[in-house]
Write a structure and sequence with these properties.
The complex is a heterodimer of chains A (about 725) and B (about 375).
Chain A (H helix, E strand, L loop, with lengths): L3 E14 L2 E14 L3 E5 L6 H9 L6 E10 L2 E2 L5 H7 L4 E4 L13 H39 L4 H50 L6 H14 L10 H20 L6 H18 L6 H10 L9 H50 L8 H17 L10 H43 L16 H24 L6 H20 L4 H14 L5 H5 L8 H14 L4 E5 L7 H18 L2 E6 L2 H7 L2 E6 L2 E7 H7 L3 H9 L47 E2 L5 E2 L15 H21 L1
Parallel strand pairs in A: 3-8, 3-9, 6-7, 7-8
Antiparallel strand pairs in A: 1-2, 1-4, 4-5, 9-10, 10-12, 11-12
Helix pairs in contact in A: 3-4, 3-9, 3-13, 3-14, 3-16, 4-5, 4-7, 4-8, 4-13, 5-6, 6-7, 8-9, 9-10, 9-12, 9-13, 10-11, 11-12, 14-16
Chain B lengths: L7 E12 L2 E12 L3 E5 L6 H8 L7 E6 L2 E5 L2 H12 L4 H19 L1 H23 L4 H16 L6 E4 L13 H12 L4 H14 L16 H13 L5 E5 L7 H18 L2 E5 L3 H7 L2 E6 L2 E7 H6 L4 H8 L6 H6 L7 H4 L8 E6 L2 E5 L1 H15 L1
Parallel strand pairs in B: 3-8, 3-9, 6-7, 7-8
Antiparallel strand pairs in B: 1-2, 1-4, 4-5, 9-10, 10-12, 11-12
The chains are: A alpha/beta (about 725), B alpha/beta (about 375).
C-alpha cells in the first residue's frame, strides 16, 4: 500500500454567524496517498473549500473546529501553533485559490511575488534539510554502535569515523553533481531554444531574435564543462564566437530568414544534442574517489569510469557501511517492536480505567502512562512518520480533558436552558408571543465522549497489532537503501541554494511552463495588467515555486477557457508525475476531474455522500446526488432538456434531520427525511451514503441520461480503440 | 430548434475594434438570423466579448458596419479617415476624397439617427392602433390618457433597447444599492413608463417567469445565490421584450447544477418570446447544446463559422480542431487516451505569399484560409462525406 500523506478523521467545522451556528463540515473522513489525486466534488456551500482551508490552517476568524484530526507527517494540523504552521504552509502544502485576484498582492510586481517565496523557502528548506540530515545520521550512528559495538570502544570509534566520512564525501558528490546539473540543464535549454528559433526563422516569423540569440549564447557557453560538453568544447566555443558576426551580417542584409545565423545555430544544436545523449558519470562514487583516493581520476570513457569508481567505492566503504547501517536499522526496529508489544500490554491493562468511574486524576494519569508507552515505542529511524502513534498522546489527553470540562459545561448549559425555557413558558402562558426563541442547550453526550476515548485507544491497538503482524516480512536491505537515499536527498537540499538570480531564472521558466508569453516583459508587470486566465497561471506558478508535497487546487480552472483549462490540467498532471505530488482537487465540475482524479469524493451539505475510484464514480455511481451532478451537465451529444437539480442546497444553520439531499431528491424515500443514511460499502474502494443501498430498499436504476451517456461513451471508446488497431 | 426563417436580424460587416495598437477584433463578419442562437467561442482574450460589446454600442467601433433589422446602428470611421488620407496623397484623387467624405458623413448621420426611423415606425403603430378606437369613442378620457402615454413611450423608444445583454459576472453586474424591483424596472422607467401599478405587475410577471418568488422583489442582490442573481439579470433584460439578447458567458460563473437551471431557463424564454440569442461562451459543450450556428474566434479573427453539428462533425481549421480536442468528457477511460492537439499558427499556415480570407468551403461553412488551404479543406470535406 502506498504511503499515506494526509489523513482526515471525523473533521467538523462550523461558523459563528449572526443567525446562529452554520455547520459547514459535518464529520468527514478521507486519506490522501502519495502521488495520487483526490478530487472533492460538490456544489458551492457543500463545505469542500472549508475542508481544504482547514488542512492549510487558514480558516476564517469566525470558524470553530468542533472536532476531528488532520494528520500530516506525524502531526495533527488542527493542534499546531501558527509559528509551527509557517513551516508547513506553502512549503509542504501549497494551495491554488479560486479567485486569482485576491491571492495576488496588487501593489507588488509579479516577478517579486514569484521569487519571494522561492528565496524565503529556499533558506528555510536548506536549514531544515541540514537538521534532518544531521539528526538522522546521528541517530543512525547511535543505533549502529548500540547494535554492534556496545562495549567495544575501538569499533565504536570506527563506526563514528565511517559516518563522518559519509558526511564528507556526500557533500563533495553533491557539489560535483549540482555543477553538472546546472550545465546539463543549460545545454538542454539551449538546444530547445535553438530548435524553436531555427524553426521560426525558417518560417520567416522569428521575433526577439537578438535577445534570444544572446540567451542561447549564454546558455551554450555555460554548458561547457568537464562532463557535459568536454571533447567538443573548442568547436562549440568557436561556433559561439561566430554567432554574433553571423547575426550582424543577417541583420545588415535584412534577411528575415536569418540564413547565416540559423546555420550556425544548427551546428551548435548538433554539438549540444550530442553532449546531452551521453551517460552521466556516477558522481556519488566519484565524490568518494576524489575525497579519499590519492591517485588522480583515471582517463577513460564514462561507462568504464563509472564501473571503476563504483568498484572502488564498494570495496573500500559502501558495502561495509550498508551492512552496518542495516544492523543499526534492524536493531532499532526490533527494539521498537519490543516496545510496541509492551505498549499493547499496557494499553490493554490500563484501558479498564476508562470503563470505571470518572475520576479526573486517575484518568489523566492513565492517559499519561499510555502516552509515554506509545511514544517510546516509535522507531526513531523511520523516515515515514507513523501518524497514529505520533498524535496519540496529545489527542488522548485532549479527549480526556474534554470529557471532564463537558461535565461542568453540561450542568451550566442545562441550567441556563431550564431558566430561559421557564421564562419563555411564562410569557406564552400570559398569551403573548415571545420575541426570541430559546436557544437549545448544547449538551455534550458524555457516553459519546467516553466512546471517543476508547476508540482512540482501540485505534492504536489495532494499528500496532497490524504493524507487528507484518514485522517479520520487512526487507531491511531495501530499507537501508531507502535510508541512504533519504540522507542523500536531504544533503542535496542543503547544497541547492536559491539566490536571487537563480530564483528569477526559475520564475521565468515557470512562467513559460504555465503558458505565459513574453515572460521577461511580464515579470516586471503588476497583477492588474494581466487578464483573468493569465493571473490564474501566475498563481499556479507561485504555488509550484515552493515545490510542495501536497497541492490543494481549489477550483483552479473554473474561470479559464477550455484550451487553457486543458493546458493547466495537463500541467498539473505532469508536475504530479514528475514530483510525485499528492493533489487535492476541488471542483464543482465532474467533467474536469475525469481526466486527472484517481479517487473522487462527492460532498453535499458538509458530508461525503459517495466516494470511490474515478471509474466507480463515473461508471457505477450509486448516490442520487452523483447522478444528478452527472446528468445536469450537457455533453457534445446532448439534445434533450437538461436534468437540472431543483432548488438550492439547504441552509446549514438549520441542518435537515434526515438526508440533507432528500428535499431535492427524486428518489427520496420516507426514511430519507427521518434518519441520516450511513456509508454503505459497495466494493473495497467504493462507498455511498444513501438508503437506496439498504437491502430492504426498492431497486432504483440510475437516470436514463446517465446510463445512456455511459453506453455512448463505451461505444465511442471502442471506436477509437478500433481506429488505433 | 433551428428555424427556417431567413430574415437577417443582425448583420456585422468587417467589424474592427482596436484599442491602441491591440487589434481586439479584426475584420469579423457574420449574420444572425431571426430566432436562431448564434454561439461565439474562443479562448479568453480572443475578442468574443468585445464583439458583443461593440454590437450593443458599449464601444465606438473602429471600422466596419453593424446593421440591426436593416438599419445601420454602428459604423466605424477609422477606415474612412485612412482611405481619405491615402486618396489625398494620390495625384488626382480629389473626386475620390469628396466621395469618401460624403460616405463618412452618411455613416455619422446613420449612427446618430438610427433611432429616428424606428421611433417613427413605433409612433405610426401606436397611432394606427388608437386612432380608430378614439374616433369610435371620443369621450373616453381613460383611452385618451392611455393613447398619450403610449405615444410618449413610442417617441422615447430607442432601437438599441431591442438588443439586451446578460453579463458574465452576476455579482458585479447588479447594483448593490438597488432592490431587485428597481433593478428589473429600471429599463422600463428610462423608457418612460410611469405607472407604478403597471411597473409592479410587469416586474412580478418577470420574476415569475425566471422562477423567483414575488417576495424577492424587495430584497437586495447580496441576499441571493449566484444562480438567483443570474436569473435577476435575465429578468432585467427580458422585461424590455428585446429581439436580440447578447448573453456574455451567462453560466461560466455558476455551479454545474445551477448552470443547467439557467440554460433551461434561457431555452424556455427563447421558445416563448421567439428570441434571437448571441451566446458567447468558452465552454464548448454548453455552446454546442445551446446554439444553432457557431463562430470560432482566434486572436480577433473569425476562423471558422458553421452549423453547430457540422462544426463538430467536420472541423476544418486547425484551431477549431485544437479547441475541440481540449473538451474534457466525463469518461475517465476516454480521458486517458485523449490527446490535445496543439495549435501553432506559424507551423500550420504559410501566409507569406498567398494571403488568407474568409471563404465558404461548403454551403454555410466558412473558414479563414488561403487558396491552397481552401482546396485542401474542400477535398477533406468531400472525402468525409463520400
Amino acid at each position: 500500500m502506498a504511503e499515506k500523506k494526509l489523513e482526515v478523521r471525523n473533521l467538523m467545522v462550523s461558523f459563528r454567524t449572526s443567525n446562529g451556528r452554520l455547520q459547514a463540515v459535518r464529520g468527514i473522513d478521507f486519506d490522501l496517498y502519495k502521488g495520487e489525486t483526490l478530487a472533492i466534488v460538490g456544489e458551492s456551500g457543500s463545505g469542500k473549500s472549508v475542508t481544504s482551508k482547514a488542512v492549510l490552517g487558514i480558516l476564517a476568524g469566525n470558524s470553530i473546529v468542533e472536532g476531528g484530526e488532520i494528520i500530516y507527517d506525524g502531526k495533527d494540523l488542527l493542534k499546531l501553533s501558527e509559528s509551527e504552521f509557517h513551516r508547513i504552509r506553502g512549503d509542504k502544502i501549497a494551495m491554488i485559490f479560486q479567485d486569482p485576484m485576491s491571492s495576488l498582492n496588487p501593489i507588488v510586481k509579479i516577478g517579486r511575488q514569484l521569487t519571494e517565496a522561492m528565496i524565503l523557502k529556499g533558506r528555510a528548506r536548506q536549514k531544515e534539510s541540514r537538521f534532518l540530515f544531521n539528526s538522522y545520521l546521528e541517530r543512525l550512528r547511535v543505533n549502529m554502535i548500540e547494535a554492534e559495538a556496545k562495549e567495544d570502544a575501538a569499533k565504536a570509534a570506527e563506526i563514528g569515523a565511517k559516518c563522518k566520512n559519509f558526511d564528507k564525501f556526500e557533500y563533495k558528490h553533491l557539489a560535483l553533481e549540482s555543477d553538472y546539473r546546472r550545465r546539463y540543464s543549460a545545454a538542454s535549454d539551449a538546444a530547445d531554444d535553438i530548435d524553436a528559433l531555427t524553426f521560426e526563422m525558417s518560417k520567416n516569423g522569428a521575433k526577439d531574435v537578438v535577445y534570444r540569440v544572446n540567451k542561447i549564447r549564454k546558455e551554450a557557453a555555460l554548458s561547457i564543462g568537464k562532463y557535459v560538453v568536454s571533447d567538443r568544447a573548442e568547436e562549440l566555443r568557436g561556433k559561439i564566437g561566430e554567432l554574433r558576426s553571423a547575426l550582424d551580417s543577417d541583420r545588415k542584409a535584412k534577411d528575415s530568414s536569418y540564413k547565416n545565423t540559423s546555420a550556425v545555430l544548427t551546428c551548435i544544436g548538433d554539438v549540444l544534442r550530442d553532449a546531452l545523449a551521453k551517460t552521466m558519470p556516477n558522481f556519488f562514487a566519484m565524490g568518494y574517489y576524489l575525497t579519499f583516493s590519492k591517485d588522480p581520476l583515471p582517463e577513460m570513457p564514462v561507462d568504464e569510469l563509472n564501473r571503476f569508481m563504483r568498484k572502488y567505492l564498494d570495496d573500500n566503504f559502501m558495502l561495509d557501511f550498508i551492512a552496518d547501517a542495516k544492523k543499526g536499522l534492524m536493531y532499532s526496529a526490533n527494539r521498537a517492536d519490543e516496545k510496541k508489544r509492551e505498549a499493547i500490554a499496557l494499553l490493554e491493562a490500563e484501558k479498564s480505567v476508562f470503563n470505571g468511574n470518572p475520576d479526573k486524576k486517575e484518568w489523566l494519569a492513565a492517559s499519561d502512562k499510555m502516552k509515554k508507552a506509545v511514544e517510546s515505542s516509535i522507531d526513531q529511524l523511520e523516515t515515514v512518520k507513523d501518524g497514529v502513534a505520533y498524535t496519540f498522546g496529545e489527542s488522548l489527553r485532549g479527549s480526556v480533558e474534554l470529557y471532564f470540562s463537558s461535565i461542568d459545561k453540561n450542568k451550566r448549559e442545562s441550567a441556563r436552558y431550564a431558566k430561559e425555557k421557564a421564562r419563555y413558558d411564562a410569557i406564552v402562558a400570559r398569551g403573548k408571543t415571545p420575541k426570541a426563541e430559546v436557544v437549545p442547550a448544547s449538551v455534550t453526550d458524555l457516553d459519546e465522549a467516553k466512546e471517543d476515548i476508547l476508540r482512540k485507544i482501540d485505534r492504536v491497538l489495532e494499528h500496532y497489532r497490524e504493524r507487528l503482524s507484518v514485522a517479520n516480512n520487512r526487507n531491511f536491505d531495501d530499507e537501508t537503501v531507502a535510508m541512504i537515499d533519504f540522507l542523500k536527498a536531504n544533503a542535496s537540499g542543503v547544497v541547492n541554494k536559491v539566490t536571487k538570480s537563480i530564483a528569477k531564472a526559475k520564475a521565468i521558466k515557470l512562467m513559460e511552463e504555465v503558458g505565459i508569453s513574453e515572460p521577461r516583459k511580464r515579470y516586471n508587470q503588476y497583477p492588474f495588467e494581466f487578464s483573468g486566465g493569465m493571473r490564474q497561471r501566475i498563481v499556479i506558478a507561485i504555488a509550484l515555486a515552493a515545490d510542495p508535497d501536497i497541492l490543494i487546487c481549489d477550483e483552479p480552472t473554473t474561470a479559464l477557457d477550455v484550451t487553457i483549462q486543458s493546458q493547466i490540467l495537463e500541467l498539473i498532471g505532469k508536475l504530479k508525475r514528475e514530483r510525485d505530488l499528492s493533489i487535492i482537487f476541488i471542483t464543482h465540475d465532474l467533467g474536469v476531474v475525469a481526466n486527472m482524479a484517481d479517487r473522487i469524493a462527492v460532498m453535499y451539505a458538509g458530508k461525503i455522500v459517495e466516494y470511490g475510484t474515478s471509474s466507480d464514480i463515473f461508471y457505477h455511481s450509486a448516490h442520487p446526488y452523483t447522478w444528478a451532478l452527472l446528468s445536469s451537465m450537457p455533453d457534445l451529444d446532448t439534445d434533450d432538456k437538461l436534468d437540472s437539480i431543483p432548488g438550492t442546497p439547504p441552509l446549514m444553520i438549520y441542518p435537515p434531520k434526515g438526508d440533507a439531499f432528500a428535499e431535492r431528491n427524486k428518489y427520496a424515500m420516507k426514511i430519507d427525511f427521518e434518519r441520516q443514511p450511513p456509508m454503505f460499502k459497495i466494493s473495497d474502494t467504493h462507498y455511498a451514503a444513501t438508503w437506496l443501498l439498504h437491502p430492504n430498499a426498492p431497486h432504483v436504476d440510475p437516470p436514463k441520461t446517465v446510463t445512456d451517456r455511459i453506453s455512448r461513451m463505451k461505444n465511442r471508446r471502442q471506436e477509437s480503440y478500433g481506429d488505433e488497431q | 430548434m433551428a428555424t427556417n426563417n431567413n430574415e437577417v436580424l443582425l448583420r456585422v460587416e468587417h467589424l474592427r475594434q482596436y484599442f491602441g495598437s491591440t487589434k481586439a477584433v479584426d475584420d469579423v463578419s457574420f449574420d444572425i438570423k431571426k430566432g436562431e442562437a448564434f454561439g461565439l467561442v474562443g479562448e479568453s482574450g480572443c475578442g468574443k466579448t468585445t464583439t458583443g460589446r461593440s454590437i450593443i454600442k458599449l464601444y465606438n467601433i473602429t471600422g466596419g458596419d453593424i446593421y440591426f433589422k436593416g438599419i445601420r446602428i454602428g459604423a466605424g470611421l477609422y477606415d474612412y479617415k485612412k482611405k481619405i488620407e491615402e486618396a489625398k496623397k494620390t495625384p488626382g484623387g480629389q473626386a475620390e476624397v469628396s466621395r469618401l467624405r460624403k460616405e463618412m458623413k452618411q455613416a455619422i448621420y446613420d449612427q446618430k439617427h438610427c433611432d429616428r426611423q424606428y421611433q417613427r415606425e413605433q409612433v405610426q403603430k401606436v397611432k394606427e392602433k388608437y386612432q380608430p378606437l378614439l374616433a369610435a369613442d371620443e369621450k373616453n378620457s381613460e383611452l385618451r390618457r392611455e393613447y398619450s402615454r403610449e405615444l410618449r413611450k413610442a417617441r422615447k423608444t430607442r432601437l438599441v433597447t431591442q438588443i439586451q445583454m446578460i453579463f458574465q459576472d452576476p455579482i458585479a453586474s447588479l447594483n448593490p444599492r438597488m432592490t431587485v424591483r428597481e433593478i428589473i424596472a429600471e429599463g422600463l422607467i428610462i423608457q418612460g413608463e410611469r405607472d407604478k401599478k403597471e411597473l409592479n405587475r410587469k416586474v412580478l410577471e418577470m420574476l415569475d417567469l425566471v422562477g423567483l418568488a414575488p417576495e424577492y422583489a424587495d430584497r437586495y442582490p447580496h441576499e441571493f445565490s449566484g444562480g438567483q442573481r443570474q436569473r435577476i439579470g435575465v429578468a432585467r433584460s427580458i422585461i424590455m421584450h428585446p429581439e436580440l439578447i447578447i448573453a456574455d458567458e451567462p453560466v461560466s460563473a455558476l455551479d454545474v447544477s445551477i448552470q443547467a437551471q439557467v440554460i433551461n431557463l434561457l431555452n424556455d424564454l427563447r421558445d416563448r418570446f421567439d428570441l434571437t440569442v448571441l451566446f458567447i461562451a468558452h465552454d464548448l459543450s454548453v455552446v454546442k447544446y445551446f446554439s444553432d450556428r457557431i463562430g470560432v474566434m482566434y486572436f480577433g479573427k473569425m476562423v471558422e463559422l458553421a452549423d453547430s453539428d457540422e462544426l463538430f462533425r467536420h472541423p476544418l481549421h486547425p484551431y477549431t480542431r485544437s479547441l475541440l480536442s481540449a473538451i474534457p468528457l466525463p469518461d475517465p477511460e476516454y480521458e486517458k487516451v485523449r490527446k490535445r492537439i496543439e495549435y501553432n499558427p506559424l507551423a500550420e499556415h504559410d501566409y507569406t505569399v498567398d494571403k488568407p480570407s474568409v471563404r465558404e468551403v461548403a454551403p454555410g461553412h466558412f473558414v479563414y484560409c488561403n487558396d491552397e488551404e481552401f482546396e485542401k479543406y474542400r477535398a477533406e470535406l468531400a472525402s468525409d462525406n463520400g
